[in-house]
Write a structure and sequence with these properties.
Layout: H1 2-26, E1 36-37, E2 39-45, E3 49-56, E4 61-67, H2 69-73, E5 83-88, E6 97-98, E7 109-116, E8 122-128, E9 137-144, E10 147-155, E11 162-167, E12 173-177, H3 184-192, E13 198-203, E14 208-215, E15 221-223, E16 229-234, E17 239-245, E18 251-258, E19 262-268, E20 274-279, H4 282-290, E21 298-307, E22 310-319, E23 327-333, E24 336-341, E25 346-352
Antiparallel strand pairs: 1-22, 2-25, 3-4, 4-5, 5-6, 7-8, 8-9, 9-10, 11-12, 12-13, 13-14, 15-16, 16-17, 17-18, 19-20, 20-21, 21-22, 23-24, 24-25
Length: about 350
C-alpha cells in the first residue's frame, strides 16, 4: 500500500513540475528578446496608458483609450480622469486632444470600437470600468469633429468582466468577458491554470446573450472586413481564435491561430490584415503592472489572414520595454504604425519602411 501511495505522489509531483514548466514556457519566461523594427519611431506623450487605439481612415485620425490604470486598479482617486483622445495623423507634430473635456461620469475606458452608420453618423463604443456600477458598461458616443457627444450607457448582468467590444450595428455589438471570477484566488487560478472560462456576448439592442464561451482570457475582439468573421485574442493561450457569425449572432469556431505570445487588442488595416499589440513575457507584464520601474517587452504581430488554414504570422516590432512597456494595441495605416501600452504615458508613432509583397498566394 505504501508503494502505491508513493508512486501516486511521485506521479503527482512529476505532473506538477511539468505543469509549472509549461506555464513558464507559455508565459515567455524562457524567451529571448532581440529588439528589431524596420522603420523609425518617436514618442507621443499621453495623460495615461493608451490601452486601445483605433484609426478613422476617412479622417486620417487615431482615437486613444487613455487612463491612469495603476491608480484606477488601486482604487485611488485619479486627478486626471480617463478619456478618449484624438491624434491627427496628417500633422507630424500633432499631440493628443481630449475629446471629453467636460465629461462628468466616472470613466475608465478600456477596449473601443468605431462604427459608421449608413447615414454617415460616426459612433464610438467604449468599455467603461466604472466602480459606481455593479456591472460594467459600454458607453456609446457620437463623434463630432474632435469631440465626443455622450449618447447612452449599456449595461447587462452577463457583462461582468468586459475587456473589448466590436460594434456591428447602431446598437448591436459583441463584447468579450475576459474572466468568470472577478477577484481573489479563483481569478488567479483562472489565469495561471489557463482555465477556459472567458466568453463573448452579443447585444442586439435590447438584450444580451452568450455568443460563444470556453475561452481562456477572452481579450481583444474584432470583425473581418467582409463582416462574416470574428477574431478573439486569448493571451494566456497565445492564440487568436477565428469564428464565423451565424444568423442568430452566435459564433461558430473555425480555427485557432497559434501566435505563441500574449496577444491583446486586435485591429485591422486597409488590406484586412490583423495587427496585434502583444506581451511576449506575461510574467514581466504582471510585474510591470505592479511596479512602473520594471520593464515589460513590447511586440507587434501582423497576421495576413485569407481563409481557413491559409494565413501568415509576422513579427513586425519587438523591444525590451525601454521604448514602451506593456504594449496592448497596434494599429497600421499606410506607413504609420501606432503602438500603445496599458500603463506607460506615451504612444509610439512609427514610420514603417516599405516591405516585400505578401508571400501568401492570391
Amino acid at each position: 500500500m505504501k508503494k502505491i501511495i508513493s508512486r501516486v505522489l511521485t506521479f503527482a509531483l512529476f505532473f506538477l513540475v511539468l505543469l509549472v514548466i509549461k506555464t513558464l514556457y507559455d508565459a515567455g519566461v524562457f524567451k529571448s528578446i532581440k529588439p528589431h523594427f524596420a522603420g523609425s519611431e518617436k514618442v507621443v506623450k499621453t495623460a495615461g496608458g493608451a490601452e486601445d487605439i483605433i484609426i478613422n481612415r476617412q479622417k486620417e485620425v487615431a482615437y486613444l483609450s487613455v487612463d491612469k490604470r495603476r491608480t484606477t486598479l488601486a482604487g485611488k482617486p485619479t486627478p486626471t480622469p480617463g478619456s478618449i483622445y484624438y491624434l491627427d495623423l496628417k500633422k507630424p507634430d500633432a499631440t493628443p486632444v481630449n475629446m471629453l473635456p467636460d465629461f462628468k461620469r466616472e470613466f475608465h475606458p478600456h477596449g473601443m470600437s468605431y462604427f459608421r452608420t449608413s447615414s454617415g453618423k460616426e459612433l464610438l463604443f467604449v468599455v467603461n470600468h466604472s466602480k459606481l456600477n455593479t456591472h460594467q458598461t459600454i458607453e456609446k458616443f457620437e463623434i463630432r469633429d474632435t469631440q465626443l457627444v455622450y449618447l447612452e450607457s449599456i449595461q447587462h448582468n452577463l457583462m461582468t468582466s468586459p475587456n473589448d467590444v466590436v460594434a456591428v450595428g447602431e446598437r448591436q455589438f459583441y463584447v468579450t468577458n475576459d474572466h468568470r471570477y472577478l477577484k481573489g484566488w479563483l481569478r488567479t487560478m483562472e489565469d495561471y491554470l489557463k482555465l477556459p472560462l472567458g466568453s463573448v456576448n452579443f447585444y442586439d439592442g435590447k438584450t444580451m446573450k452568450v455568443a460563444t464561451s470556453g475561452i481562456a482570457y477572452a481579450n481583444g475582439i474584432n470583425i473581418s472586413s467582409n463582416k462574416k468573421m470574428i477574431f478573439v485574442a486569448s493571451p494566456t493561450n497565445g492564440e487568436v481564435i477565428v469564428y464565423t457569425r451565424q444568423p442568430d449572432h452566435t459564433l461558430e469556431l473555425v480555427e485557432t491561430i497559434k501566435v505563441h505570445t500574449g496577444v491583446d487588442n486586435i485591429e485591422l488595416d486597409e488590406k484586412g490584415h490583423l495587427w496585434l499589440g502583444c506581451h511576449p513575457k506575461l510574467f514581466a507584464f504582471v510585474a510591470h503592472q505592479k511596479d512602473s520601474q520594471k520593464k515589460s517587452p513590447s511586440q507587434v504581430i501582423e497576421i495576413i489572414y485569407q481563409q481557413e488554414g491559409i494565413y501568415e504570422v509576422k513579427e513586425v516590432y519587438l523591444n525590451n520595454g525601454n521604448s514602451l512597456s506593456g504594449s496592448s494595441a497596434a494599429v497600421a495605416y499606410k506607413d504609420h504604425l501606432l503602438i500603445g501600452g496599458v500603463f506607460d504615458k506615451k504612444v509610439l508613432w512609427c514610420k514603417m519602411k516599405p516591405t516585400t509583397k505578401d508571400s501568401l498566394p492570391k
